Amino acid sequence: MKPNISIGIDPGKSGAFGAILWRSPNEIIAIEAIRLTEPPRDVVDWLKRVLRSGELFGDIQLERVGAMRKDGRKQGVVSTGKFMHNAGWLEGVLDAYGLPFEKVQPTSWQNALKCRTGGKKAISTARAKVLFPQDRFGLKIIQANADALLIAEYGRRMSMPPQVMNPNVARPFRG
């Protein structure tokens, strides 16, 4: 039997695709990620390979984008342009392959996984390291892939019936 797959996407400038392969709520088999700084063809090939390895569970979770503020100022034009460009081509790929996706607010997945960042990526990176320890899964959690994996985990939890897993309680997985 093929495992279930949950996919999350952080479309930021240094964002990533993250995938979680799992058999039951507390049995994660593997995690994978690819940075969006890789060539687009490599990202699409990675996505196709991951989707062949299991059954997509629920919608792919794509973080909702918008111009962000830093210290009360608007984000720069170049940064905002790159952010929107990434979001656009990612939506195009998902649409072209007929993959269902849902846009999720950053505060939604951060609240559900108890890692409100307030713009501090170290908070989400630390949370991802707790949920997906490198010694168990073999993937080094860094700022570039942490949010994508947490977004995938949010989608995984939100797609399960409430009696199976409470999506508002973040807890490490048992092996």
- Alpha-beta classification: alpha/beta
Low-confidence stretches: 166-175
Share of helix among residues?
40-55%
Domains (count): 1
Q: What does the average pLDDT come to? A: 86
**CATH homologous superfamily descriptor:** Ribonuclease H-like superfamily/Ribonuclease H
Instruction: Kindly estimate the percentage of residues that lie in beta strands according to DSSP.
Output: 15-25%
Regarding CATH, which class?
Answer: Alpha Beta
**Cα-to-Cα separation, first versus last residue:** 19 Å
Q: Compute the gyration radius: what is it?
A: 15 Å
Please give the largest β-sheet. Answer: 6 strands, mixed
What would the CATH topology be? Nucleotidyltransferase, domain 5
Helical stretch tally: 6
SSE ordering:
EEEHEEEEHEHHHH
Oligomer: single chain
- Which CATH architecture? 2-Layer Sandwich
| Form type | globular
Counting DSSP E segments of at least 2 residues, the number of strands comes to 8
